[in-house]
Amino acid sequence: MAMDIVIVDSYKSMSIKAAEIIAEQVRKKNDTVLGLATGSTPEGMYACLIEMYDEKKIDFSAVVTFNLDEYIGLPPDHPQSYHHYMHRHFFDHVNVKAGNINIPHCEGRDPGSICREYERKIREAEGIDLQILGIGTNGHIGFNEPGEYLYTGTHLVELAEETIEANSRFFDSRGEVPEQAVTMGVGSIMGAARIVLLASGESKAEAVRKMCSGKVSTGHPASLLQLHRAVTVIADREAASLLKNNNPACQ
Ligand code: F6R
After folding, report:
1. Does the annotation mark 9 as catalytic?
2. From CA 179, how far away is CA 105, in angstroms rounded?
3. Cβ of 144 below 6 Å from ligand 1
4. d(CA 90, CA 36)
5. Checking phi first, is residue 243 left (phi over 0); if not, alpha (psi -120 to 50) or beta?
6. Model confidence band, residue 109 (pLDDT cutoffs 50, 70, 90)
């Protein structure tokens, strides 16, 4: 069991590498089930995938997608909702079929039934082939926040103060950041056949170090990934700067 750690020179190289892994996967299996993330980190990856699509190097027509998470309290057309993000950065520019796109849809619905339905859909799709992840400065993956315990399946979550603080950069004020979200659980994520985690920038260095420490803790959800058999971490030099000699213990 080992994490494959790829250290690259720049955000751009990280984005290209991640897009290439997705393209290779989709070429191998045209009806690939992709798990997708939002946030600043994968924006460049989506831009690369759109470029590949424009150059006819990738075809998403049979691809099925599941997003990790969505805020509670923002309508899908809100500019900061993850629905809006995904359409703006990816879906509006490529040929993923609308019926193949899955993002937890929380508005005006009971979160419990949304979560059960989401898990059922993942099962019906026969699981995720390739899951893309970012990492929070507090070690969260999806919105699985550090705590005494973690949830296995899709669930409603109270966002950690650190997450609200970090994500307030996307909103006019901190008070506008939703405090709750629906997220895939660590079991849903760990069920993916392959996982690629992207990390960029110095602010992620400590979280990346703990993720690769050789210790697993619910206090650092990303550390669970050390138990998965096929994880690739693509980190730029800044995000990898606290790994010993750039050569992590878990390699
Ligand atoms: C987003 C998600 C989060 C982010 C993480 C890092 O769908 O699930 O775990 O990946 O908060 O966000 P950025 O990339 O904005 O630093």
Report:
1. no
2. 16
3. no
4. 11
5. beta
6. confident
**Catalytic residue chosen out of the listed positions 70, 145, 155, 236:** 145
The number of angstroms, rounded, from the C-alpha of 74 to the middle of its chain's C-alpha atoms is 19
| Residue showing tokens 């494959």 | 4
Whole-angstrom distance, CA of residue 191 vs CA of residue 130: 10
- Closest residue by Cα to atom 8, ligand 1, is 142
Domain 4-236 has CATH 3.40.50.1360: yes
For 220-244, what is each residue's pLDDT tens digit?
999 999 999 999 999 999 999 999 8
Quickly tell me which residue has 């020179």 as its tokens: 9
**Which member of 100, 119, 129, 140 is catalytic?**
140
State pTM to two decimals.
0.96
- Per the annotation, the verdict on 172 as an active-site residue is no
For 12, the enclosing helix (H) or strand (E) is helix 11-28
Catalytic residue among 67, 102, 138, 167: 138
**89-98 as b/e, with b when 16 or more CB fall inside 10 Å?**
bbbebbebee
* Whether the CB of 38 sits within 6 Å of ligand 1: yes
Question: 143 near 68, Cβ under 8 Å?
Answer: yes
CA of 140 relative to ligand 1 center, distance in Å: 8
**Whether the CB of 44 sits within 6 Å of ligand 1:** no
68 Cα–ligand 1 center, Å: 9
List Cα–Cα distances, 202 to 148, 150, 209, in angstroms. 27, 26, 11
Nearest-angstrom CA–CA distance, 125 and 106:
21
Whether 138 is catalytic is yes
- pLDDT one-digit tens code per residue, 40-71: 999 999 999 999 999 999 999 999 999 999 99
Cα radius of gyration (the chain): 17
